[in-house]
Amino acid sequence: MEQISKYFNAEKYESVLFVLVGFVAIIFATYFFIKVKQPFYNGMAYPLIVIALIQITVGGSVYLRSPKDILRVNQIVQTDKAKIQTEEIPRMTTVMKNFAIYKWVEIALIIVSIIMFFFFQPMTIWKGVGLGLFIQAGFMLLLDFFAESRGKIYLEYLQTLI
After folding, report:
1. How far is the C-alpha of 128 from the C-alpha of 16, rounded, in Å?
2. Are residues 88 and 158 in contact, defined by beta-carbon separation less than 8 angstroms?
């Protein structure tokens, strides 16, 4: 049962990082719009804000959900281990498949951002969009890599319980 708490608490702590990075990105984007007011920095602000809103929403929901998940899975382990096979393992299998999708989307966004950054003229709005997208997609890819690694370990643990 320690593995269950360890997994969901790690998810909870990473979600705090998601939320914090989201707020920092919004602060930078706001600064770019209000103080800097140059096309390159305004361009960078757009993906910073859009992806920050996703980070805050997803991070906040994971943070709020994690304690309930610990209780839910611990209760399954204590009262009805059959639900591990019918509920928790299928849920985690879906989560792991989603990580594969997220990874490819994030890699595609990084490729697009690199092309944008090198294709467009210096200090244009589109070059800024490319850099902002690169920063956010790279950060998301990094954190999803760690989350996927934790998920794999947790799924393997669940399979030992059946």
Report:
1. 27
2. yes
